């Protein structure tokens, strides 16, 4: 497409949703969200459209394809509000030691697993043991890196010890990420769920969907509201939207931004959560011309973030010059203004790089051809580059071919989303481009970035925490090996106006237990 066309695209105005985020949290002393207490909500079967099949029932397999199930089959020790405040769930209390080297967790005494067995500290201990095992811990294994061991003084208490003083938010992230699995069910949890959640598995048809039924042992009074949840897999967003409009389903979980905008405009509800992804321009700084710091830094100003958000994501999200969601303690909105789209500043840095025009154009942009928004934002950047005299090709790959190149770091530069951006800041290092060890792209990550992550991980004094976050943020824009552009919603919910009590948790996982019909 031509530069003129993309300059026109930047002028397009799309409808921006103002749907408020909501999070499912509850505990002994907490009041549930007002909509969840409305007596008008009634039960029945909630019909949910999804776009991909699940992987397995292990809550430690924290993959997006399982997000519709995890918080319906399992509960966490604690939860977060949309603002990132830790609140009780299966744990009634948690006491962090004065030296920040342990946390004492007290469990509720009225919780049972779907099997009917009572939750005890032994189940939590068995869950932690699985998480700490590199062969079994899956996505939770990295979070367990701060843990040295644990003890269970009694059936309701577990004390978790850390290798060194750990920051408070890193500790609460661990507790929020810990979803107890019944000890007797750990060996078979991939095929048979074993949680304390509001629902339990009723049936599954591989590639078609599954059905959950209400857990008769559930500990939250009056929940779940509905007796069953039916998940049906649709081949694409268009067919899922058609099913919602024909009243064949009540909810779409994982809708696209553009479909959500259209459907809200004709009367459907849209729910956005506090746990978005952030689109990031990933730079392989081991390859020329990106070995040049000034050349990389120019990309901070080459991103037409407003245009990318409007055109690629229908305005759903926020512009971002840092890889954080607002719930992250490292979030700093001023960076979006400081590094706003500015071709003059970009030209200054390009000139300071000392690279010739030919050298500046000697690379390709890898593009995932299966994701329309990624194609659009790649083309917008290509247009901006052309305006400063850099002409590059888009190397568009499909499916597994693109994924293999992305995960292996076999690219010059590419757009790719990152997650864990609303949690403790060093959790961003779970994403390949941000890893401080075993980084498939950078191999040996930038030393000042590694040091900044280490400083965040080891700073527990509240008086020094903000300085550690500020240092990390400045290093990110200076090293400039990953340039964020905007946040966008994962797990976006579009629902019939007949449905009430919908919620997404801090990770944008679907929470059905408060949902019912009006």
UniProtKB/TrEMBL annotation:
One GO cellular component term of this record is:
outer membrane-bounded periplasmic space
Pfam families membership:
SBP_bac_5
What start and end residues bound the annotated signal peptide?
Answer: 1-26
Record's subcellular location: Periplasm
Q: Which family does it belong to?
A: Belongs to the bacterial solute-binding protein 5 family.
Q: Which GO terms describe its molecular function?
A: peptide transmembrane transporter activity
**UniProt cross-references to InterPro entries, sorted A to Z:** Peptide/Ni-bd, SBP_5, SBP_5_CS, SBP_5_dom
Keywords annotated in UniProt: Signal, Transport
Per the UniProt entry, what species is this protein from, by scientific name? Kaistia nematophila
What's one GO BP annotation on this UniProt entry? Answer: peptide transport
Q: What is this protein called?
A: ABC transporter substrate-binding protein
Q: Which CDD domains match?
A: PBP2_NikA_DppA_OppA_like (cd00995)
| Stretches assigned to the Solute-binding protein family domain | 86-420
């Amino acid at each position: 497409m031509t530069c003129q066309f993309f300059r026109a695209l930047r002028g397009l105005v799309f409808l921006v949703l103002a749907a408020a985020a909501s999070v499912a949290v509850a505990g002994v002393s907490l009041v549930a969200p007002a909509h969840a207490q409305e007596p008008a909500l009634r039960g029945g079967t909630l019909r949910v459209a999804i776009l991909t099949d699940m992987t397995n029932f292990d809550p430690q397999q924290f993959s997006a394809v399982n997000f519709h199930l995890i918080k319906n089959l399992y509960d966490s020790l604690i939860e977060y509000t949309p603002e990132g405040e830790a609140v009780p769930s299966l744990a009634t209390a948690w006491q962090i030691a004065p030296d920040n080297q342990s946390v004492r967790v007290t469990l509720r005494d009225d919780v049972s697993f779907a099997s009917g067995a009572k939750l005890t500290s032994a189940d939590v201990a068995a869950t932690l043991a699985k998480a700490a095992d590199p062969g079994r811990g899956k996505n939770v294994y990295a979070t367990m890196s701060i843990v040295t061991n644990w003890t269970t003084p009694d059936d309701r208490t577990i004390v978790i010890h850390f290798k060194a003083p750990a920051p408070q938010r890193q500790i609460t992230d661990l507790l929020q990420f810990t979803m107890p699995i019944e000890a007797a069910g750990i060996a078979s949890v991939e095929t048979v769920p074993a949680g304390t959640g509001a629902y339990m598995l009723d049936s599954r048809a591989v590639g078609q969907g599954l059905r959950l039924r209400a857990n008769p042992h559930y500990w939250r009074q009056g929940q779940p509201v509905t007796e069953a949840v039916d998940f049906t897999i649709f081949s694409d967003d268009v067919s899922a939207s058609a099913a919602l409009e024909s009243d064949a389903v009540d909810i779409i979980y994982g809708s696209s931004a553009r479909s959500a905008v259209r459907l809200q405009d004709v009367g459907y509800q849209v729910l956005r959560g506090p746990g978005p992804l952030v689109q990031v321009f990933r730079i392989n700084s081991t390859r020329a011309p990106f070995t040049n710091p000034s050349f990389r830094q120019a990309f901070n100003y080459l991103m037409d973030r407003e245009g990318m958000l409007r055109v690629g994501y229908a305005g759903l999200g926020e512009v971002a010059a840092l890889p954080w969601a607002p719930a992250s303690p490292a979030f700093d909105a001023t960076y979006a203004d400081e590094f706003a789209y500015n071709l003059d500043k970009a030209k200054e840095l390009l000139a300071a790089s000392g690279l010739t025009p030919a050298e500046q154009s000697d690379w390709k942009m890898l593009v995932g051809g299966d994701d329309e928004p990624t194609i659009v934002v790649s083309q917008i950047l290509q247009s901006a580059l052309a305006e400063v005299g850099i002409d590059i090709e888009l190397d568009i790959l499909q499916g597994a071919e693109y994924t293999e190149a992305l995960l292996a770091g076999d690219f010059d530069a590419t757009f790719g989303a990152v997650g864990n951006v609303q949690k403790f800041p060093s959790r961003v290092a779970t994403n390949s481009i941000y890893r401080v060890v075993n980084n498939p792209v950078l191999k040996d990550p930038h030393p000042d970035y590694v040091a900044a992550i280490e400083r965040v991980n080891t700073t527990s004094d509240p008086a020094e925490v903000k300085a550690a976050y500020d240092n990390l943020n400045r290093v990110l824009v200076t090293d400039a090996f990953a340039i964020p552009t905007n946040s966008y919603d994962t797990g976006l919910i579009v629902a019939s106006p007949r449905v009430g009590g919908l919620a997404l948790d801090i990770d944008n996982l679907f929470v059905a237990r408060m949902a019912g019909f009006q």
